[in-house]
Design a protein that fits this description.
By secondary structure, the protein is mostly beta strands. Helix content is 0%, strand content 34%.
Amino acid sequence: MTSTGPVPLTTIFTQSSNCRNVTSSLEYVDGTNYISTFSATDASGWMSLGPEDWSTCYPSGYDTQSYFSPGECPSGYTTAGVSFFSLGNEVETRAICCPSGYNAQTGESLPWYSTNPCTSSNTDIPATASFTIDGVETSSVGTFGINAKGISIRRQSTDFASATCTGISSPTSSGNGTYPVPAVPAVDYHPEQRLVLESGLRWE
């Protein structure tokens, strides 16, 4: 078996305008199939940012379960959930790129956690959701959080020797941070431990 490393994302990717529209439908728990109705046997659903076919909304090589390294956030995205990890003599910065106005999620138990790591910081988004449970059609009108797919990036000080990275700062400074970042204690990294915020629409 041939193994491949992470895909680099070193140029700024710009999405098309329809990628920022909020869908009025729901998304299956696997993060790929949008629907307007679902039955009681389906796992979960939630409001999600973007069109039904979101494949053109992200850089080539994008996958909800992987990361770009070295990576730059797309245009219109900001860094969220930034963390620093000591890798020998290097310090690696890991972050999730979320659409502007969205934050990193903060609850690993949420069914949309692995595919939608971002959630709207505006909690007053009005929406009407229609769904069918056991043959009975129901509508719910209210204000809901909107979830969004994020882009995971990682970088080390040697990746961009003279680059200034907007939105990623050292633990002791604010604003823009210039690499290399200060040394931090070694930590044990567990891929399943990521940042997440309880928000969004869910039925079970």
